[in-house]
Specification:
Blueprint lengths: L1 E10 L4 H17 L3 E17 L2 E13 L1 H13 L3 E9 L8 H11 L33
Antiparallel strand pairs: 1-3, 1-4, 2-3
Protein name: 30S ribosomal protein S6
GO molecular function: small ribosomal subunit rRNA binding; structural constituent of ribosome
Organism: mine drainage metagenome
Length: 145
């Protein structure tokens, strides 16, 4: 059997529970045709780079799949018929990644950073920016009164 990674983008106006049942349905299609899903990651409701079918956001899900190509083709056919799925991409890989994906790692690193207080923010010296540009301090030398 071959190894695949599949990322699915579902519509923004469906609930998280509906996304989970949608993912369960796709998993059941794969299992029914002799495959298995080793990892499922819900990446959350994220912004999309450009508008897709009048949606600016989407629910992202990653699936790590070990299945024959016929099972993956059937899963893709089911996804193309489903109106709740905006886009999907399935890629064949040499080996499946263990542990959390890069998206989940960056999300965890963001959560672990300490919060800054207003007084902790570093201030720039020199007023409003570069001299002579913008609203910085003005020189009155040579000006006639």
């Amino acid at each position: 059997m071959s190894l695949y990674e599949c990322v699915v983008i579902a519509r923004q106006d469906i609930a998280t529970t509906q996304v989970e049942t949608l993912t369960d349905d796709l998993t059941n299609v794969l299992i029914g045709l002799g495959g298995q899903v080793s990892k499922r990651e819900y990446w959350g409701l994220r912004n999309i780079a450009y508008r897709m079918k009048k949606n600016r956001k989407g629910h992202y899900v990653l699936l790590n799949i070990d299945a024959p190509s016929a099972a993956v083709k059937e899963m893709e056919r089911q996804m193309s018929l489903n109106e709740d799925i905006l886009r999907f991409q399935t890629v064949r890989v040499e080996e499946l990644e263990e542990g959390p994906s890069a998206v989940m790692q960056s999300k965890n690193q963001r959560d672990e950073r300490p919060r800054r207080e207003d007084g902790d923010r570093p201030r720039r010296e020199g007023g409003y920016g570069r001299e002579g540009y913008g609203r910085g301090p003005r020189s009155t030398e040579g000006a006639e009164a």
